[in-house]
Amino acid sequence: MRASLIGFVVGVLPGAGATVASAVSYMVEKNLTDKEGTFGKGDIRGVAAPEAANNASAGGSFVPMLTLGIPGSSTTAVMMGALTLYNITPGPMLFTQQPDIVWGLIASMFIGNVILLVMNIPMVGIFARMLYVPTWILAPVILAISIVGVWSVHATGFDLILVTALGVFGYALRKLGFPMAPLILGFVLGDMMEQNLRRALSITNGDIHILFESPISKGLWICGLAMVLVPPLLRLIARRRPTAPAVSH
C-alpha cells in the first residue's frame, strides 16, 4: 500500500514515469523495513514494492494528461497523440465536453485490473518458473538485447563502447557497495533538469535569480538541502549518543 501510494504520486508528476516511481519506492522501503540487510538477497519486499509503485504510476500518469493536457509518461504521450488524431484535445474542458470518453477510460482501468488479476493468479506458477533460468543463460540474452537496442538508435560504434564502459562502471559501483537507485534517478531526471534550466535561463536572458525568486522555488531549495544534510546529521547524532550500560543481574 505504501509503495502504491508513492507510485501514484510520482506518476502524477509529468515526465517522472515508472522508473522514478520504482526507484523511490525501493529506497523508501529499504530505509524503513530493511533492518536485517536482506534487500537484494531474495527479500520479497524488495520486489513487491517497486512493482506496486510501477503499476500505480501508470494510473497516476493519466491525471496530468486528462486534466492539463500534459502527458505524464511516454505511454500517455502516445495515447494523447492518438486522441488528437480523432480531434479529442485532453485538458480541463474534456471533462465537460466529452465526459463519456473520460469516464469510459477510467472504467477501462478498473476492468483491466480485474482481467490482470484473473489471468495472473492461475499463471503465477509459470511466471515464477522464469526465476529458475540459470544466470549463464539469462545474462548473455540480456546483454545481446541491450547491444541490439543501443545499436538500433544511431548505429555507431561509439554507442557500443559507451554502453560497455558504463556497464563496467556500474559493475564496479555495485561491487564497492554504492546504491544503484540514486544513479537511476540522476540518469532519468538529469536530462529534464538540464532542459528546464536552459528554458528558464533563456526566458530571463541568463538571469540566475529566477531560480530563487518565487516562494515555491525557495521551498524546493530548502527541501533539497534538507534531503542532503539531514541524513548525515542524524547518523552523526546517533554515533555520538552514548549507549546505555548493560545491567548485570
Question: Any chance you could write out the topology, listing elements then pairs?
Answer:
Layout: H1 2-12, H2 17-33, H3 45-60, H4 62-68, H5 74-85, H6 94-97, H7 99-129, H8 135-154, H9 157-175, H10 181-203, H11 215-240
Helix pairs in contact: 1-2, 1-3, 2-3, 2-10, 8-9
Task: Give a structural overview.
The chain is mainly α and 249 residues long. 75% of the residues lie in helices and 0% in strands. The protein has a domain at 204-241. It has helices at residues 2-12, 17-33, 45-60, 62-68, 74-85, 94-97, 99-129, 135-154, 157-175, 181-203, 215-240.
What is this structure, in a nutshell?
This protein has 249 residues and is mainly α.
Helix content: over 70%
Number of helices: 11
Decide which structural class fits the backbone.
mainly alpha
Could you tell me the strand content as a percent range? under 5%
- String of helices and strands: HHHHHHHHHHH
For the secondary structure, the number of strands is 0
Amino- and carboxy-terminal Cα gap:
44 Å
Radius of gyration using CA atoms only: 23 Å
Major beta-sheet overview: none
Mean pLDDT: 80
Low-confidence stretches: none
Please state the overall shape, judged from the principal axes of the Cα atoms.
globular
